[in-house]
Amino acid sequence: MLLAFAVAFLLAWPAASIAADQPDPAYLADLIRRAADARLADQRYWHLLLHYRKNLWGGYTSEADDPGFFLAPEGKTNPQAELNATLAKFFSADPVGRSKQPAQCAFIARYTWLKEQLGWDERRLPPIPCERFHNWYAELNPQSITLIFPSAYMNNPSSMFGHTLIRVDQKGQTEQTRILAYTINYAADVPENEGVSFAIKGVFGGYKGYFSTIPYYLKVQEYRDIENRDIWEYRLNLSEEQIRRLLMHAWELGNAYFDYFFFKENCSYHLLSLIEVANPDWHLTDHFLFWTVPADTVRLLTQQPGLVGDIVYRPSRSTQIKRKRERLSDEERERLLAITSDVEAVKSSAFQGLPIERQAFVLDLASDYMRYRSVSDEGRASEYKEKNRAILAARSERRVRSEDFKILPFTDPPEQGHRTSRAGVGFGWRNDELFEELNLRAGYHDLLDPERGYQRDAQIELLGAALRHYERSGQVRLERFTAANILSLSPMDTLFKSPSWKINVGMQSIHHNDCRYCSAGIANGGIGAAVEAHLIGREVFFAFVEIESAYSGAYNEHYRVGGGGTLGVTAALTERWKLLLSTTYLKFPLGERTDDWRVSFGQRYTIQRNFALRAEFNHRDHHDNEVLFLVHAYF
Fold first, then answer.
1. Per-residue pLDDT, 53
2. Comparing C-alpha atoms, which of 55, 245, 56, 33 is closest to residue 137?
3. CA distances (Å), origin 360, targets 332, 353, 355
4. CA-CA distance, 625 to 602, in Å (whole number)?
5. 3-state secondary structure 175-229
6. DSSP 305
7. Does 8 score more than 50 pLDDT?
8. Environment class of residue 536 by beta-carbon count within 10 Å: exposed (0-12), middle (13-18) or buried (19+)?
9. How much is the pTM?
């Protein structure tokens, strides 16, 4: 028995020594040869694991930017060299990458796939125990994968288009315990107090993006409770093997960072690349060449046959409050307002006179509002928490069960919205001259676009341009260019008092002085307020105080700077038909001293989700009038 043990130890010792120190040169050469014969470095799965993309003029470059993600010096651009170096590192127990693990463990998806393809002899290439990975995987205890879409958040440039992340649902999980699951999130590492540089760096890849594993309840608290964003959850129908491949690669990405670009290589883009590893037959990232909008990625996933299963909606706290408030009578609304102002109002005869079930409902709603304010107004958080304790004490005295209440969203799921790029063709008259127009917009949505699937009362237009041909003069010109035109209307009421704001930067044609059509660079911004009404359909009345600067050769001083205000209303008459009317007066005391009165009226009729008709009238600068008819297609 002792002799047999000694023989076994001596046989095992050389292999263990090789794994710890250096590869078996002959066996490594054999594996590299077999991998080359099988052209493994050219296979799509290898390219997915290393995030290789074809270069315009041939060759490959990985989108990963962390040197520690590559095991060959030229691994970022050479798939074959990276594969050879990876095989060599598998013989070593030396730590690699930011995670400081042996290559077999740090890059376990590579290891698993190459082992499947080459079927190597474990006596000559011994496996190394990967306890950290197996403990992590066991803690996740995965049963399914869910894509999470928090809706747009207008007060953060990186979240204006929404966000996506992945939740790993555990075995035995229920709807009540699902919030305790873990998420896989990709986000930029942004230092505090970046200011204006935040947007500039975000656009041009000035931040590093990392994958992280975070409990879902923390993300729900951030998105739903703090930022008041509705959340949509899409369960993906992945097999057990597909889930394992996805999570193994997610583990590998702990060794990588990517340069973060708001418009292209963002949260949604890299989550799609992770999902592609689960099933290489899906070519998801190939659909996004220039920009990646989260809503578009959700729409793409729902279009994959059989991929998306159940869809669950988690309303934000503000949505919950607004929907519950709709169930109140006028009298109950007065009592709610009184209690939120002074908790002692629960003792009033007017409140005590309500049926006990309605008292409980009003107190539940008042508590929801106090929790909302304690987060949204941090300076008075302690005051609101104290009020909430008093409200909860009063609620505990009403020994009736809270009413089951299903919260319906104000907007439809994002996949039901129009596509985010837009092209238009049309004709019109400007100052009695006929013209034809062709326009194109990279993204994303304006106030007159079909509303379904988009945040209400919000506008984000980026990189739009219009070409016109004027019949009388025969002139073809760039009529307007939009760098960014962003507007957020936040209807105020007795409970919610967020301001509205807007900013517009671009170029437009003006008719001014002796210049019939001249280009003018424009920068405009304003702060204001909005209120909601239901006179015909749904109307939002708004007012802005604003400033504007413009530069053009048509101005006597070549520029003008001033300010003024805008009044307007949007009216959704039906789901298909919407109107927008506004009037603006601006006074320019700097540069060319002039004033400008503008009137704009537009209406849109939706033919189908990605096809709409639009008619507009615009009056500018006292004597410049225009009528325009357009057909818009979204793609």
1. 96
2. 245
3. 11, 12, 9
4. 14
5. CCCHHHCEEEEEEECCCCCCCCHHHHHHHCCCEEEEEEEEEHHHHHHHHHHHCCC
6. T
7. no
8. exposed
9. 0.89
